[in-house]
Amino acid sequence: MGLVKAQSLTKVFRRPQKGPGLRGSVKHLFQRRFKDVPAVNGIDVSIEAGEAVAYVGPNGAGKSTTIKLLCGILVPTSGSVEVAGVTPHVDRIANARNIGVLFGQRSQLWWDLPVRESLGLLRDMYDLPKGFYQQRIERLDEVLGIGELMPVLARKLSLGQRMRADLAAALLHQPRIVYLDEPTIGLDIAVKDKVRKFLRELRADGTTLMLTTHDLGDIEDVCERIIIIDEGRKIFDGPLAQMKDSFARTRRMHLHITDGTPMDVIAKHLSTADVSGEGSEVTIAFDRFAHTAGQIIAAVLQVAEVGEFHLDEPAIEDVVRKVYAGELLV
User: Fold this and answer.
1) Is 240 a residue whose pLDDT tops 90?
2) Of these four, 62, 138, 161, 279, which has the most CB atoms within 10 Å of its CB?
3) Is 113 left (phi over 0), alpha (psi -120 to 50) or beta?
4) Distance between the two ends of the chain, CA-based, in angstroms?
5) Pairing of strands 306-312, 177-181
6) Is 21 helix (H, G, I), strand (E, B) or coil?
7) Residues 6+ apart with CB under 8 A from 55
8) CB burial readout 88-124, b (16+ within 10 A) else e
9) How many CB atoms sit inside 10 A of residue 267's CB?
10) 102 in Cβ contact with 183 (< 8 Å)
11) pLDDT tens, 133-163?
12) What's the pLDDT score for residue 106?
């Protein structure tokens, strides 16, 4: 039984259909026409405690709508949703105590208050004990460096600073489930690494994470499972490693040939691989289930001298693109 469960979850929005200009608007007043547009269309999801799941898809796929349904912000058109034993849109207060939410385009900080006051208000809303609150602030300062942001008005924060403060606000009450929409957007590399490490620690402590992100680093560093949706439907749900194995069998090895061995000689020797390149720079594409990288380099060394070489790992973005293209449907 999952901590987060959705069965046949569907959300349909009614959009007005009217012609252009004033004439279209006036006509719509007397002859109203609407079109039902499904944003989420029959999604089944079950997420266990302590899982870190990447929830990805192209813009308009239904990611944000799904998160809003799980948060209780929206009411499903049909289907059911349950989070930690609570129906989110029925008991919003109980659900809010279990979850932390970060929407990249929305801030939960009070615009004209210092960050310290916003966090203080959240402390009172969640009725956090003084000692626990101070402990959490110290931990979040260690990871996110929010100490320097505490006296700053929210409206004066840069994007990266605001994301750090909003992330602290989402995690302040130590929620069991955290929904993160682009959690590292606007952060520099050093802070990104700290945030990802902290998210891995949260996962190890049993916190359930659901990330909607376009940052491949977030997915690979934090998540072990990936759900891909498109046009409101789930098209893949499984381990990240399984998806890469299914759609990223090809590896590319780049070599610098130092003795002038012609590329066609290498290609003839590696008849089961795809050899390309120009001059002394050679690229070998091979099926990693048919050959290991060691076997490839050993075969090349039989006919040529190699200076430097490196191996490209498949980018998740390329793998996801193949799924979008319809190479896999569930």
Assistant:
1) no
2) 62
3) beta
4) 21
5) unpaired
6) helix
7) 63, 66, 67, 210, 211, 212, 227, 229
8) bbeeeeebbebbbbbbbeebbbeeeebbbbbbeebbe
9) 16
10) yes
11) 999 999 999 988 999 999 999 999 988 899 8
12) 80
Contact 6, 79 (CB under 8 A): yes
Contacts of 6 (CB under 8 A, 6+ apart): 43, 44, 45, 46, 66, 69, 70, 79, 80, 81, 82
Q: Measuring CA to CA, how many Å separate 187 from each of 58, 150, 219? A: 22, 18, 16
Domains and CATH numbers, the chain: 50-72+84-245 (3.40.50.300), 249-313 (3.30.70.260)
Rounded distance between C-alpha atoms, residue 64 and residue 103, angstroms? 9
Residue 325 in this model has a pLDDT that exceeds 70: no
Residue type at position 133:
Y
Nearest to 178 by CA among 200, 201, 204, 210: 210
Handedness of CA 52, 317, 180, 145 (dihedral sign): positive
Q: Percentage helix, strand, coil, to 5, in the chain?
A: 40, 30, 30
